[in-house]
# Entry
Amino acid sequence: MKIYVVRHGIAVEGLVRGISRDSERPLTDEGVAETEMVARALKKMAIKPDLIVASPLVRTQQTAKIIHAELGGEFATSDTLAPGISIASVYKFLKKFEKAHDIFLVGHEPDVGEIVKDIVGGGFEFTLPFAKAGVCCVETSDLPATMPGTMKWLITPNVFKLLTE
# Structure
């Protein structure tokens, strides 16, 4: 099974332009363009998700929908990917989709790094900072991982840009 862990794209900073809560912050125009470029690069890599799951926050919904429009697959929203996640609750949610083998999880920092850390069995000192719109591919036999998974790659938008040129 492949798990693609994605951090949302560049979002509006702070509570401006009528935004009253952090959960309402949308992607900026740059964030939309960069996420679209990342989605095109993923398509060039022949990645075909069975499932894309996103946090309910606006910026992750937008990021996930851009990826979904390019790659397809089933789409779901889950509070388990909202900031401050419990990794056990993410796994419990994913049990509903037992037939899914290529899964995108679209969330927030530092939670996305914690998901990768948990799947690969990283120790206390393991950290994995994600760039906005960055994607990490991890292979595992199951979730929760009974054996440490393998981090296959972590690609930033700058590297994805090279794939689309």
Notes: Strands lie at 2-7, 51-54, 74-77, 102-107, 135-139, 150-155. The chain has a mean pLDDT of 94. The chain has five helices and six strands.
